[in-house]
């Protein structure tokens, strides 16, 4: 296979994978706390919490280990950025943890290389929808009758 074709195909890689810990479930969990990543300072934790609220959950965001006591689960994340003519979010890893033991309930990895990149908000939406077992969001265009 020509080198140019290999490079093109490798720059369009996407992967969205969710793995649930056996014996655990998100069923019945409605209140979440998104912990800020220690090295993040631009508000991605709040964006994730806002997206969860848009999905119908109650979510707040803040510093690690300082969330409210009455949450059903804690959400943590790692974001890996890359540069290809401009910075972009290469990988987002979400983890949903038990608030008492901090044991893993479910984890999701959203990975997109340069030519398949999405903005950070869309990456969070995709990962959250997969985490909660929701279908991909479809946008349907309907022409006006005028």
What is the structure about, briefly put?
The chain has three helices and six strands. It has helices spanning 3-10, 44-54, 120-131; strands spanning 14-20, 31-35, 58-62, 73-83, 87-97, 104-112.
Q: Secondary structure elements and their pairing?
A:
Layout: H1 3-10, E1 14-20, E2 31-35, H2 44-54, E3 58-62, E4 73-83, E5 87-97, E6 104-112, H3 120-131
Parallel strand pairs: 2-3, 2-4
Antiparallel strand pairs: 1-6, 4-5, 5-6
Helix pairs in contact: 2-3
Structural class by helix and strand composition:
alpha/beta
State the helical fraction: 10-25%
Largest sheet descriptor = 6 strands, mixed
Order of H and E elements: HEEHEEEEH
Order of adjacent strands in the largest pleated sheet: 1-6-5-4-2-3
Explain what this protein looks like in three dimensions.
The protein has 146 residues and is of the alpha/beta class. The chain contains three helices and six strands, in the order αββαββββα. It has a six-stranded mixed sheet, with helices on one face. The radius of gyration is 17 Å and the shape is globular. It starts with a helix and ends in a 15-residue tail after the last helix.
Offer a few descriptive terms.
alpha/beta, six-stranded mixed beta sheet, 33% strand, 21% helix, 6 strands, 146 residues
